[in-house]
Amino acid sequence: MLIIEGLSRRFGDRLAVDDICLEVPRGSFVGVIGRSGAGKSTLLRMVNRLAEPTAGRILWEGADITALRGRALRDWRARCAMVFQQFNLSGRLDVLTNVLVGRLNHVPAHRSLLRLWSDEDRAIALSALERLDIANLASQRAEHLSGGQQQRVAIARTLVQEPDIILADEPIASLDPRNTRVVMDALARICRDYGITVLCNLHSLDIARGYCDRLVGLSAGHLVFDGPPDALDDAAARELYGLEAEDAVGPAVHAPQASPFALHA
Ligand SMILES: Nc1ncnc2c1ncn2[C@@H]1O[C@H](COP(=O)(O)OP(=O)(O)OP(=O)(O)O)[C@@H](O)[C@H]1O
């Protein structure tokens, strides 16, 4: 269980996140929604301590994450993997090596520095690529892949970290509709198959409603909605998005039902 207690973050005189409280059971797929500047990224970044809270606490399985320092903090960051909009791959390195970077916390420093990956680590990385249906790309340079393929490599990299939580910060913002589905399907499958908690910032309300089992809506740093997608009616969407609501509210883009987690390159 992830518990967020009275979490705030101030930048100068602006409260980016203001006194947020949440309880997220393990294995949830939570969509964090709201207009630009609402505080979504800041909230996610605080969970893995890329941003420091000004006030409040974050607890994971009862442990106070906000108090972690040094090695314990590095371990937490490995268990709390991030997926970014811009993939953050090393373009000149091949796909397999990019995924192996996710194993850094599991191997001795001298081996990772010399890139002496064990057969076991390679097998784990290949297996993650297979799970994402891109094992055939293992030897290609990352910069030669499409955006959707690169995001799947980034997700494979998080998988080999063996995380408890995946924090996905606008993971589909730079993808076309087809790749959007492929990447969201992958996150949904990981959440379901491995019981990994996924917190996913999304601009598209349609995608959030179609894929997430819970939506958390932020407005100017405040929590203004927390509930299942069906409970987000037009009035709630209007409170979240204001004048943008008519653009934001549309039919939900549902994960495919017949073969919900089919992935195609
Ligand atoms: N490092 C920073 N320094 C100063 N202000 C910041 C910093 N990071 C975020 N902010 C401010 O905090 C507020 C929330 O930003 P945040 O990036 O969390 O919002 P967001 O909902 O993720 O927006 P977007 O959807 O555009 O990414 C914004 O007003 C932003 O300008």
UniProtKB/TrEMBL annotation:
<keyword id="KW-1003">Cell membrane</keyword>
<dbReference type="InterPro" id="IPR012693">
    <property type="entry name" value="ABC_transpr_PhnC"/>
</dbReference>
<dbReference type="InterPro" id="IPR003439">
    <property type="entry name" value="ABC_transporter-like_ATP-bd"/>
</dbReference>
<dbReference type="GO" id="GO:0016887">
    <property type="term" value="F:ATP hydrolysis activity"/>
</dbReference>
<dbReference type="GO" id="GO:0005524">
    <property type="term" value="F:ATP binding"/>
</dbReference>
<keyword id="KW-0813">Transport</keyword>
<keyword id="KW-0472">Membrane</keyword>
<dbReference type="Pfam" id="PF00005">
    <property type="entry name" value="ABC_tran"/>
</dbReference>
<protein>
    <submittedName>
        <fullName>Phosphonate ABC transporter ATP-binding protein</fullName>
    </submittedName>
</protein>
<feature type="domain" description="ABC transporter">
    <location>
        <begin position="2"/>
        <end position="245"/>
    </location>
</feature>
<dbReference type="InterPro" id="IPR027417">
    <property type="entry name" value="P-loop_NTPase"/>
</dbReference>
<dbReference type="InterPro" id="IPR003593">
    <property type="entry name" value="AAA+_ATPase"/>
</dbReference>
<keyword id="KW-0067">ATP-binding</keyword>
<dbReference type="GO" id="GO:0016020">
    <property type="term" value="C:membrane"/>
</dbReference>
<keyword id="KW-1278">Translocase</keyword>
<keyword id="KW-0547">Nucleotide-binding</keyword>
<dbReference type="InterPro" id="IPR050086">
    <property type="entry name" value="MetN_ABC_transporter-like"/>
</dbReference>
<dbReference type="GO" id="GO:0015416">
    <property type="term" value="F:ABC-type phosphonate transporter activity"/>
</dbReference>
<dbReference type="InterPro" id="IPR017871">
    <property type="entry name" value="ABC_transporter-like_CS"/>
</dbReference>
